[in-house]
Structure prediction request, 329 residues.
Amino acid sequence: MSVRVRFAPSPTGNVHIGNIRAAIFNWLFARHEGGRFLLRIEDTDRERSTGEAIRTLLDCMAWLGLDYDEEPVYQSRQTARHLAVAGELVRRGLAYRDAKGGGGPCTVFRMPGEGRLEYSDLVKGVIRKKAEDTRDFVIVRSDGTPVFHLANVVDDIDMGITHIIRGDDHVENTFKHIELFKAVGAPVPHYAHLPMIVNSRGKPYSKRDGAAFVGEFKEQGFLPQTLFNFLALLGWAPGDDREVMTRDELAAAFTLDRCKSSAARFDLKKLVWMNGEYIRRTPRGQYAEIFASRLRDAGLLRPGFPQETLDGIIDQMQVRTKFYSEIPA
Ligand code: GLU
Prediction:
């Protein structure tokens, strides 16, 4: 069976590095396996998922070179299908209508009442829960809108997703999702839940810790290949001592069994070092071009400036530059 994975973000206008790291891992896995990497935009929150937020998301993906293999799926366009599945589950007695809350009835999915629920996560190992500790849950709200769990699972079924690689904030949801896959009669995909990205104190990395969104790193002068490489190493390692790796090298080495289950610490010093490495490895001609054009723009490169002197400066500078913005412009 060929691998089909997806990145399924809910666009909010900013793309957090934790989210894009999930996209990178999915992309690398698909490329390693010769499978397909798909994009599903979970745009059911009409207030946050504006056209602008979706454009920001697509721009970030393009900047990082995260190309996808089929047309993106917009979740908000699949509502009729989500509701049809819910209706079918009711008809088969696997879900029921509950009119308690006033308004129209909501639709509730029945979880198993007894026994043990478990799944084998490709990163975290076996995860278990007693059925008694789970509750039936709403899949269609009383206003007739599908809930995340239903939409997410039905779309994964329709897209033929084989492996779900996502942040470990979804570990608990997965118990619900697996029961939904089974109820619909679809094969349960493999799961790989990625460890959280944390700050130096071990707390979830947030915007209070510094740049947290892809756009901010771009503005600060990080190169896309730096951010891609750096994020690929947050929760995964090639198993040898390589750190600076091209996308192709990363894809060749990427397997899920090398993903780590412990939290991944965000190390800004390493990110800055890596940017310098990418600048150092830039073909000299390209660096020289950027260097000279910035100097020219700044009026610092007078006509007739001796080429030899300039070459000497460029050689000295290329090995030191961490950001192109360090070159006067
Ligand atoms: N939209 C959800 C999120 O961004 C999708 C999670 C998933 O990958 O299934 O958290």
In short: The chain is about 40% helix and 15% strand. The longest strand covers residues 36-41.
